[in-house]
Amino acid sequence: MAVFSGKPLELAQIASVSVKALPWAFFVGTLKFSVGSLVANMNLVKKIYFPRVNIALGSLAETEYLLEFCLRLGYLTEKGYKRLEDLRSEVGALLWNFYQSL
Predict the structure, then answer these.
(1) Is the dihedral of CA 46, 47, 51, 55 positive or negative?
(2) For residue 40, what are the domain limits?
C-alpha cells in the first residue's frame, strides 16, 4: 500500500491525482507533438514555404478542444479549466502576434 506523509493512500486518492494530471498531459503532449513533427520533418518543411507557426496554432486549437472535453467529462473543475484556458489564451496571443509580424 502507498504511504504519503505517514498516512496510507486509498485508491480513490491515487485515481484523483491521476485524473487531475490528465489535462496537463494533453497540453504538454500537443506542444511536444507539434515541435517533434517540425524537427522530424525539417527536410520537408524547408522545401515548401508556409508560415510554420500554423502548426503551433493547430496544436493550440487541439489543446482548446481537449480542455473543453476534460471539463465536460468532469476531469477539470471550473476553476482549473479557467486557469488552463487563460494560459492557452496567453500562448495563443503570443503566437498570433508572432504570426502577424511575419
Answers:
(1) negative
(2) 21-101
- With a threshold of 0.85, does the pTM exceed it? no
Lowest mean pLDDT among 40-44, 47-51, 58-62, 94-98: 47-51
Which amino acid, residue 43?
N
User: Is residue 13 in a domain?
Assistant: no
The CATH code of the domain that includes 25 is 1.20.1440.60
d(CA 55, CA 38): 8
Place of cell 487541439: 62
Q: For residue 74, which of 15, 34, 32, 33 has the smallest C-alpha distance?
A: 15
The pLDDT tens digits for 15-56 are: 777 777 777 787 788 778 877 877 888 787 677 776 777 777
